[in-house]
Structures are given as C-alpha cells and as structure tokens.
Design a protein that fits this description.
Length: about 80
C-alpha cells in the first residue's frame, strides 16, 4: 500500500479495533489511538507488559505503541474471529 493510502485508512478507522501487518511480517491487533503523517499508534488488545515511551510508562500518555506508516503493508478492521 502507498503511505498516503495507509494514512487515509488509519484516519477512517480512528478509535476502531484493527489488525495491522508490517512489511516485516509483524502483526498488531488493537485500537487506533492517534494518527499523523509518519506514525499510527494503537493500544494493543492483550497484555503488553513493561514500560515504554508513549505507553503507560514514561510520560503516561496512553497512546499505545507507534508503528511507522511506511512500515505498514496492510490494515483491516479486526473481527472477533482473529483471536
């Protein structure tokens, strides 16, 4: 997908539960909490332990984990059957 398409699709699905597949093959399932031209942040569904920037640790913003728009190969609304 072109980065502009990824950006527009992430904006359409803001606040919804999605499944994101990176070009490296990593998969993420969670709710989109923020989108900008370079990054999309999702709050993971299951226990994402530990502390980190932008999660529940330092800064405490609760945005979730950041994924670079350019690293995303695909994004789709996540259904209950993807557990």
């Amino acid at each position: 997908m072109h980065p502009r398409e990824v950006y527009e699709q992430c904006n359409r699905h803001m606040g919804k539960r999605v499944r994101i597949i990176e070009k490296s093959g990593r998969r993420h399932v969670g709710t989109i909490t923020r989108v900008d031209r370079n990054m999309v942040w999702i709050m993971p569904d299951r226990g994402f332990g530990g502390f980190g920037l932008g999660f529940w640790g330092f800064g405490g913003s609760g945005l979730g984990i950041g994924i670079a728009i350019g690293a995303i190969a695909g994004i789709a609304l996540a259904g209950a059957f993807w557990w």
